[in-house]
Amino acid sequence: MAKRETQWRKVDVTRAIEAVKAGGVDVGRVEIDGGKIVIVSSADTNAAPSPFDDWLKSNAR
Q1: What's the longest Cα–Cα distance across the chain?
Q2: More confident residue, 36 or 49
Q3: Do residues 42 and 30 touch, judged by C-beta distance below 8 A?
Q4: How many helices (H) does the chain have, and how many strands (E)?
């Protein structure tokens, strides 16, 4: 038999978001893919600005 997708409830998502916020992380968005809840922070600390980003800052009007 095929494995059934895990059913999530609104309270599960709410608890996950509250736990992330309690950890000091700002929530950017929440993705629900099948039975998996993925919370993405609003500030991606791993991404360094690209040369294009630097150029945009210096040439913005």
Answers
A1: 60
A2: 36
A3: no
A4: 2, 2
What pLDDT, on a 0 to 100 scale, did the predictor assign at position 18? 96
In the block, tokens 């500030």 appear at: 43
Q: What is the DSSP string of 43-55?
A: S-TTPPPPHHHHH
Q: Which two tokens stand for residue 24?
A: 């000091």
Give the domain ranges of the chain: 10-59
Residue 27, both tokens: 């929530």
27, 14 contact by CB (below 8 A): no
Q: Residue 1 CA to chain centroid, in angstroms?
A: 33
Q: How confident is the model at residue 11 (pLDDT cuts 50, 70, 90)?
A: very high
